Amino acid sequence: MLLVATTTSFLLSLLGKFLADSFLATRIPVLGSFAGFQYAANSGVAFSITFPGHLQTVLIGVALLALAWAAWHAKTRWSRIAFGLIIGGALGNIADRIPDGHVTDFFQVGTFPIFNVADSCITIGVFLLLLEAVWVWWNR
Question: What is the pLDDT of residues 14-46, one digit of tens each?
C-alpha cells in the first residue's frame, strides 16, 4: 500500500502542476471570490515560508529521510497509506521545484495560502496519521 499511495499521490501532483501550468492563465472562480483556481509560484515551503540559502534544501532533505524511515517502520495499513500520501506529495513538490526553484500552487480557498495537489496529499496523510493515533489511544 505504501508504494501505491506514494506513486498515486506523486503522479496526481505532477498532473495538477502540468494542468495548472498549461491552462491556468487567469483566476477561475468556483465559489465567487471565496474559492477558485489561481496560479501562484511558491518558492517557499509550507505556507510559503522561506529559509535562507541552502538551509531550505537541507531541511527538505532531512524531512524526506525522516519520513522514509518512519514509513519503513509503519505497522498498519492506514499508516502505510498515510506515509505514502505524504512521501508522494513531498516528492511531487520536489520534482516541481527542481526546474525553476518554485512549486506551482493553484487551489485558492478564502484567505488560506494557495496550495496544490501535493500539499493536499501531505495534509490528508498527516490527518490519517493523527486519526489513527487518536483511534489507538481511544481503544486502549
Answer: 999 999 999 999 999 999 999 999 999 998 777
Alpha-carbon distances, residue 3 vs 76, 115, 121 (angstroms): 14, 24, 14
Strand ranges of the sheet holding 103-109, from the earlier edge strand across to the other edge: 28-31, 35-42, 103-109
Q: Which domain, by its residues, includes 96? A: 1-24+68-140
The answer to whether residue 52 is domain-embedded is: no
Task: Give how many domains the chain has, as a whole number.
Answer: 1
Does residue 34 form part of some domain? no
Catalytic residues: 105, 119
pTM value is 0.89
pLDDT tens, residue by residue, 61-85: 898 899 889 988 899 999 999 999 9
- Identify whether the C-beta of residue 27 lies closer than 8 Å to the C-beta of residue 108: yes
Q: Is residue 55 part of a domain?
A: no
SS3 content of the chain, % helix, strand, coil (to 5): 60, 15, 25
User: If DSSP codes are grouped into helix, strand and coil, which group holds residue 26?
Assistant: coil
Residues 76-90: b if buried by 16+ CB within 10 A, e if exposed: eeebbbbbbbbbbbb
- Domain assignment present for residue 117? The answer is yes
